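Mods, move this if it's the wrong board.
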Amino acid sequence: MAREHVLDVRGEDCPGPLVKVVRKIARMPVGDRLRVLTDVEECVRLIRETVEAIDLRIDVNDTGEGYWVMVIEKNLAKPRLPPRRKS
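Not the wrong board. Structure tokens:
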């Protein structure tokens, strides 16, 4: 049965929350969802870009209360890794 996990990273600046999201997704079984709460707009952008790059589903909602809720569904057994950026 699918579970929903919650990761509250409000008050934390990226890239810390991004790293936590990636690690949590890696440990979750397929079908589970991760609900991420953040109050940093840059984290919303970085997390969304990363999750979309590895072909996972994400839904982002601005609560209107000073933070965003992102729901990420682990719909793949092995998400593909994004290509490395050249420096």
